[in-house]
Amino acid sequence: MADARFSSFSEFFPYYLGEHRNPTCRALHFVGTAGFFALVGWSLLSSPARFGPVLAAILALGVIGNLIERHRNAAPLMLGMIALGVWAQPWLLAGVVWAYLFAWIGHFKIEHNRPATFTYPLWSLMGDFKMWSMMAVGKLWSGDPIEALGLQVPDA
Question: How many domains does the chain have?
Fold first, then answer.
């Protein structure tokens, strides 16, 4: 029998924040994601004609992956998205490694939990981007994000 899964990203996001309760873990995620965003931006600036269409294709695959994630792990699609990006800009792989390095240090050394990316790879990525954007405007830097946002953490 298949394990029950979250049916939407909005249902998943409180769980995601529940896995990132420690402000230091969130700060590590922020630094890792900022480095990734910087390399994506550099890719667009340095080679817009080559990387722009590839980024559009990656985003389109992400929309498809969002639908897949409701029913099963979308890791193969996510790996394809990464491969497409690295094909267009080989050094973009450094941004992916940078982001996951910081995130996984936060999980394994600080939170002492298993990253959600192993079960929900695309929603975890979307959650990281959403958490980063909230932090970029000054939210979630201290305290428990669940309490601060008035959310309840669903069971995994």
Answer: 1
